[in-house]
Amino acid sequence: MIRKIILFCVVVGFANTVTAQFIKERSINAQIGLGLTVPYNSVDDVSSTGFFIQGEYVLTVKSWLELKPYFGFITTNSNGEDVNGNPSPEFAEATAVFLGGKFRLRAPIPYVAPYIELGIGTSVGKFTTITAFDVVDKSGLAYHIPVALGLELGKNHGVDLGFTYYFQPQEKQFSGAVAVGLSFPID
Hints:
Strand order of the largest sheet: 1-2-3-4-5-6-7-8
CATH class: Mainly Beta
Number of domains: 1
Order of helices and strands: HEEEEEEEE
Largest sheet: 8 strands, antiparallel, barrel
InterPro entries: Autotransporte_beta_dom_sf
Protein name: Outer membrane protein with beta-barrel domain
CATH topology: Porin
């Protein structure tokens, strides 16, 4: 799995250095938002909140397709309560760095363009999931599957509003964010 991620990053990096003709535009997308961590299996509805930040190097192939190597950070902490404010022994927390690659499919609509993203990446950090079904307290390296839904706004789609999630099967949780991003063209 790690070999595939490294191969993807090398291929994207090589395409950039060669100035491949299939890349139409390049930009940097910076996102910040409310970080969330939720366990896969839980008796109580629990979630932890915190901080999320991410940077992406955006390679636009077509008006509807982008390749995006990314680097991000999330930290979340439980308050010991479920979503209704009742005390709960269950929780999921994460403090991690994300690294990987994904692609974005975007509807080429002016001013408001919906999108979906999929990819694969690796997480490095500390993950804790304590529920009636799972007990995971892990530090180190693990893979994740990024999925995002959102809207690009503006004349040049320079503002990004979205829900970004990182599904982490080994940690029995997913981390994510409600995030706002800004794009800065490089070319």
